[in-house]
Amino acid sequence: MKAEILAVGTELLLGNIANTNAQFLSERLADLGFDVYRHTVVGDNGERLKKAFEEAFSRVDLIITTGGLGPTKDDLTKEIAFEFFNKKSVVHKETLDKIEAYFKKMNRPMVESNKKQAYFPEDVTILCNDFGTAPGCGIEENGKILIMLPGPPKEMKPMFENYGIPFLEKFSDCVLTSKILRVMGVGESKAEEMIHDIIDNQTNPTIAPYAKEGEMIFRITAKADTKEEGYKLIEPLETEIRNSLGIAVYAEGETTLENVVGELLVKKNLTISSAESCTGGLLAGTLINYPGISAVYKEGAITYTNESKVERLGVSEETLKEHGAVSRETAEEMAKGVALRSNTNIGISTTGIAGPGGGTKEKPVGLVYVGLYFNGEVKSKEFHLVGSREKIRITTVLRALEWIRREIIK
Q1: For the chain, what are the domain ranges?
Q2: 289: closest CA among 256, 314, 313?
Q3: DSSP 8-state symbol, 362
Q4: Where are the alpha helices (H) located in 206-351, listed in sequence order?
Q5: Class of CATH domain 257-409
Q6: Which helix (H) or strand (E) holds 46?
Q7: What is the pLDDT, as a whole number, of residue 208?
Q8: What is the pTM for the complete model shown?
Q9: Residue 71 near residue 116 (C-beta atoms within 8 A)
């Protein structure tokens, strides 16, 4: 089935925000067996939006829209779509009740304009919004399918996964089942090289690799008559990939590295503390993203200056003088110092040059050391990272967390 993604919003045309929704939907539609022919962006203008529907449906069978489902007058996607399909809308009481309950939970009054979001024709499929007030919907008319999703990614993604895909499956002669494997510590090219035989011989299931910030994702998708049959088809292929990539497969499904590490720390009852220089608290903040981490995370220190490294962590002045703040030796003393002073099983440290300036020939921008104290043993790793200051800091945190994960597993 041919598909087109239609993003609605003047802010996209002005470049105020990036259209990450289209990227996500293209990946997922490809997994589901739909051919995406075009991405279109149109502003908040009724005439242009209607024209966009006409042109897109002349080319494809399926349109997925994002944006324009809000309560304001310039949120026109639903209204123009219903007009295009010649459908009249009425208040959908169940949806209105959910919107009212959402505002009550937020302890905020619901304004009259929000009722607009509860209007739908009686013969459409309403797609629930579990994270906002704007429901989506699905329409099928004369062989043409339209799915309307909200613009904010935190609302759009779960709506599509939980309600949009089941709606689409009604128009397929098979059930599509997917499983995600998340890989860390192996580069994109290396990961694909390690399983190239599996990829080259894929039929059903298929494997779709994606490179994301600091990690690789392999989505395995099977076509079958039932979900159960699909998972049975996926199982041997998943086993092959896990055997090839080994410990690099850190999780499956929609999760994050910090959640995996946090769960391991709590499960193993391993206490941890952190000492940061170049990451400036980002490592501590990332660990604290995991609910329940307070059971094991004891303390974090941002020791940006040499003086603070000496006073807070006990790094020796001789080490700093001889090797410098950005060194393997300093990273190790930082990790050991924060662990001993906090009385934790694990001490993790970061020190480096995130840039954009401050580097030298001997110690260039992107040179980073991560120190690890683990139940009495101290070691360090050296990394040479590239990118902006922000990217170097984020990558350092990911490398540190991945090292902790591997050490716990070992």
Answers
A1: 2-169, 175-252, 257-409
A2: 256
A3: S
A4: 227-245, 257-268, 282-287, 306-313, 317-323, 328-342
A5: alpha beta
A6: helix 46-57
A7: 80
A8: 0.77
A9: yes
